[in-house]
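Researcher: Predict the fold of Oligopeptide transport system substrate-binding protein.
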Amino acid sequence: MKKYLLFLLACIVMMLTACSDDEETKDESVFRTVYSGEVKTLNYLKTSETNEFAVAANLVDGLIEYDKYGIVQPGLAESWETNEDASVWTFRLRKGVKWVDHEGNEVAEVTAKDFVDGLHYVLDAKNESSTAWIATVVKNGNAFYEGEITDFSQVGVKALDEYTLEYTLEGPTPYFLSMLNYVCFFPVYGEFLAEKGDSFGTSKENLLYNGSYILTEFEPQNKRVLTKNPTYWDHENVLIDKIEYKYNKEAATVAPELFLRGEVDEAAIPTAILDDWFKDSEKKELIRQSRSNFYSYFYALNFNPQFDAEYEPENWKIAVNNKNFRKSLFHALDRVSAMLTDEPYNPESLLNNTITPKNFVDIDGVDYTQLEPLAKFTNNDSFNPDLALEYKEKAMAELQGKATFPVKVLMPYNSGMPDWANRSQVIEQQMENLLGKDYIDIIVYAGPSTGFLGEVRRPGKFAFMEVNWGPDYADPSTYTDPFTIGGTYNKPELAEGYTDTNGQPIYENMVNKAKAAIDFAERYELFAEAEAFLIEEAFVVPYKVGGTGYVASKLNPFDAQYSPFGVTMEKFKGQKLLDKPMNNEEFKEAKAQWEKERAEALAKASQ
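Model: Structure tokens for Oligopeptide transport system substrate-binding protein follow.
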């Protein structure tokens, strides 16, 4: 009888435990989504691709973060101070923060040395970090990267003690805090990095975590799961327990239907089906505008074509080095027609006439984009059919006997993005109809959905293509640097006829002069001149700001951490799942309320 009672008691305990587990699972907050572009690396110290550092932002914390109004907050640094000219910054770290493995086991404590080790890796040229150029703001950072010095102790980053970190910069940098929001300044546990070597960041086991989530599952082209880190220092502000990503090469197409079936919690709604959703009384309540951001989109003209011979790269090179040819394309692109594939209801609202978006930075209350000579582009539409045809005639006369017409214009797009595919078709027809098929032959090409940057854009396998850039810190140089020597874009330094008297490209000299200016008013004016030069010479065609389109989502975008630069807006920390998606009217009301609260918060922070 005694054994029977014990057995019965054990059964009851097991039943209660099972109920408890079921209840726990039921109450677990899980955000589910699908994706088509797979990450190629988890090594956050190496990548600069958004879909890769978007994962890293949730796995590893840096020194600072931002609140939902865009005001800087302590992260792994509890406090900081700077000298008078903002060239030396000292940070005091939070104690007790842990590095853990993919199973949540504690490995080590986060110390100041981890930030030194992280920067050492980034600035070691053999590691080919694509964010090293940002980190050269640190004294002797560029000299170490270029091999001019080999002793890293001469680089301006020091662990003064276990919890005190000091950066000495190349010069006054009052915006340095905003730079710390980017992956090149993230920490790494040096012993683990040395142990893993080249395998660091290749799997969930070959990474350590100190952020709000741990990568508990990672099966490329299948799924990945981020699970709340139980040891996280700010555990109470992580409100979603799991983030589940499911791979689907047709993600952009199937996501809306998966959302309707309750299988995912967010889906971008392609323009092709947008009208159907707005006309349906039930679906209409599920969609809202996306939140605009400070990503800048523009069309780049490539001066270093590396595409296949069938697309005549040498002929393109001759044509693109003719200013009138470039100007004809610049004025022929009808950006409103292109934007209709993204925003069919109010396309003009998202157009961007410069590379740097409006309201990014200002000087004495004047928006940077309103500084001369940049203002003449800011306040005028580049699309002008009469000018386009005028420049066409000039180009054909100057290129007679040099280039073959029609010039083949290879224009790839990411095949995982339906709206981009549609937009490419619109642009092909619109520009060929205006300029004539005797002049240009735009060839639309479907590039890969995974690895598009590495396989198409960075190797230069395009002639004319939509590209984008997001800011990394609060200074105009974050938008001008990508076009300098060694930058990530269309190699304007190779353009013929733009070498200055010192043997350097004219644009390079303009940017370097701006960087050398200490007075902020002078600095911003010089950067505005450099950016205006890029546009005036038609090296690029500015197009729009990011965050376009419509989405069905169980996330409130105004709960998210906010910052125009760095990785902040990729974080799930602070967000929670809504009981039902926000509709467009609710979005507009929430946006107005957020803007009011943000203005008040910024005013308070500046006191």
